[in-house]
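Thread: quick sanity check before group meeting

JM: Hey all, I'm pulling together slides for Thursday and realized we never actually wrote out the predicted structure for the chain we discussed last week. Dropping the sequence here so it's in one place. If anyone has concerns about the input, flag it before I start.
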Amino acid sequence: MVDESDEGVVSFESEVECITDMVNEQEASSASSQNVIWLPAVISRPVLPLEEYKFGADVLNSRAAVQLAQSRELPLAALTAMPAREGSPNEQLGVTLQIKKIVELPGGGLEVSAIGAHRFRVIDRTVLPCQTLRGEPAMSNAVSVEWLDDECTPTMAVDPIREHVLTLLRAVRATPFSDEEVPQNDADLSWWVAARLPLPPVARGVLLHVITAKERLSVCAKVLAAAAKAAADQPESSVNSPSVRSML
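JM (edit): ok, ran it. Output follows.
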């Protein structure tokens, strides 16, 4: 609690000084606690690795998280409440965001352009004192995480489905893409295709629970095949129908 002055008014400078002291204490505490790294976090819709994502940071703690990530050169964690796959533990997964551009809006909010980077599992949560771009004292949500890497998949297991998936994606997507845009790494390819599925973000987000490139590409192939068939049979129908989403 910040002490009040004799007039009962706390100066803005005093608040900023107090916030700075709290940040230093939090950093010292984190360093002594098994070198835990707390990532500033925002609540968002599901984001996949290699997915381009633009979002508005309007509320104070979201703006604070963006600024904290920038000032400390830390990844920004995008959190979302996703249902676990049947038979899997109930866990919260997310993706770090690589910030590409920040535009400060007239009302004080931020428009952030980012790309999904690394998948993680949330281990613990806290809040960190900080300041916004405008110097406002604020609190940022933060998480400690366990990084999730793909289980190794032999290249020969992925090659047969690779061209099939890309052919289906070209048939379904209205926006064309070049061969140069397609990742060569199997894991990156599976995320790149998943981020471009003709499904709502919540449906695509279930793929965060899939642990191998082969399985992700197999799911993508089924969704794309169903979308292509739906478009051919009923050109005016939506490919976001429940029957397509149920394949996830």
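AS: nice. Confidence is low (pLDDT under 50) at residues 1-10, 30-34, 243-248. The longest helix spans residues 12-32.
JM: adding both to the slides.
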